Amino acid sequence: MEVKGYRLRVIDKKISEYLSLFGALSIEGPKWCGKTWTCLKQAKSQFFVSDPQGNFNNRRLAEMNPSLVLKGDSPRLIDEWQEVPSLWDAVRSTVDFSSTKGLFLLTGSATVNPKKHIHSGTGRIASLRMRPMSLFESGDSTGDISLKDICFGKAGDKMTGEVELERLAHLILKGGWPATIGMNESKGSLVAKEYVKAILKEDIYRVDEVKRDSHKVELLLRSLARNEATMATNRKLQEDISSVDADGVSIDTVGDDLNLLRRLYLTENLPPYSLGLRSSLRAKQSEKRHFVDPSLPCAILRLTTESLLKDLEFFGFLFESLVERDLFTYAEAMNGALYHYQDYQGNEIDSVIEREDGRWCGFEIKLGANQIDKAAENLLRINEKIGENGGQKAATLCVICGLSNAAYRRPDGVYVVPITSLRE
Q1: Are residues 217 and 336 in the same domain?
Q2: Measured between alpha carbons, how far is 298 from 307 in angstroms, rounded to an integer?
Q3: Nearest to residue 394, comparing CAs of 147, 146, 153?
Q4: Is the model's pTM score more than 0.90?
């Protein structure tokens, strides 16, 4: 369909590819990240389950006769299908009895209660994860340097221009929500604030119909925001909540609420990377905490450009979150996977991309240009140590920074690239 004003997304090519291979495709991700618009671009008919017209007549129709709403030109978009979970099985059944590919596009902003989800769609319904816009998608990165070229050692040198610290703060605060394109900081940050408000008022009850204490969930969100881009344990989050609430919460409640936030696609933690059996270095298995977009912890903590500039250490954590949001999208475009690395000898690498061929690439993420030398030295030191301990050394090493005015390869072989020049 023709979607006026549509901005191309990195995932567009993947969607086309998957529709040619599978009978149905589910696009999953947080609300407001652009799933519906992206799918409308490739759909030839559509059905909006949550359309409020006629007192939500579409939802009632889907509940009474799921197979009826599947009729239409393909690919047929079924938007927010999780509102009527039986639609999944209707799609699966239709695909079962057809050899045609690309029949349906499904979008969902929350995973379904397992008690209502009867059958898996394995082999019939493929799935892709969609996130808020990367800087390249929103037009805030020039796209001069390709992540894939870096990972395969093919990136060239290029002057990319000066970047101001205030601009990076603005990009973090407004986030990658399509609705914020062209907005200033104060207006853009309102989108993330309203997002958090909607989660606490409605979504925490709708996912599994469990009555939750919204105040406790809000305290958990504040703790997660303070611990963004760290490996804080559930116990640490519990202690953080108890320090401001006399009643506190149990460790089981923390775990349940974290699972809820994951099911709402509000969080997306970075999994740990293991070097494999040959290496004698033992990797820690803690995940790195992340919201799906850096604007969310900013909204929760009511941060502004001024407050970020007064706390450059926390600014650095949020910049790391911004970069890793983009790396998730860029890595998946090249069929790679994103991790972080930490071993029991105190060696840490901010991000690791595992290529499709199994080789890995190490990335340090630094806000200031004055941190590049130390970051490169850290990457080289750890890479040598990994090799000495029987592990496979990195295919490439790179420092992604905020304030560098050029993308280049250092004499020691480490790439340096500003995030505002990176693309998939």
Answers
A1: yes
A2: 10
A3: 153
A4: yes
Dump the DSSP string for 312-333: HHHHHHHHHHHHHHHHHHHHHH
Domain CATH number, residue 53: 3.40.50.300
25 plus 54 within the same structural domain: yes
User: Phi/psi at 399 (nearest 5 deg)?
Assistant: -110, 120
Domain-embedded: residue 1: no
Of the candidates 359, 347, 423, the one whose C-alpha atom is nearest the C-alpha of residue 396 is: 359
- Tens of pLDDT, residues 65-116: 998 999 999 999 999 998 899 999 999 999 999 989 999 999 988 776 655 5
Q: Any alpha helices (H) in 65-184, and if so which ranges? A: 86-96, 135-138, 147-151, 165-174
Q: Is the pLDDT of residue 119 over 60?
A: no
Q: Is residue 7 part of a domain?
A: no
Residues 111 and 170 grouped into a single domain? no
Q: How many CB atoms lie within 10 A of CB 262?
A: 14
User: Which pair of tokens denotes residue 234?
Assistant: 């559930």
Whether pLDDT at 2 is above 80 = no
- The residue among 218, 233, 241 whose CA lies nearest residue 288 is 233
**Tally of CB atoms within 10 A around 34:** 24
Q: In terms of Cα–Cα distance, which of 354, 357, 362 is closest to 331?
A: 354
- 21 within 8 A of 107, measured Cβ to Cβ: no
Amino acid present at 340: H
Q: Which residues pair with 145 in a beta bridge?
A: 422
- The token pair that represents 122 in the structure block: 């394995």
Q: How many CB atoms lie within 10 A of CB 150?
A: 24
Does residue 414 fall inside a structural domain?
A: yes
Question: What sign for the dihedral angle of Cα 224, 302, 169, 10?
Answer: positive
How many domains would you assign to the chain? 2
So what's the pLDDT on residue 264? 93
Task: List pLDDT tens digits, range 390-419.
Answer: 889 999 999 999 999 999 999 999 999 999
Which domain range does residue 154 map to?
135-423
Classify residue 97: in a domain, yes or no.
Answer: yes
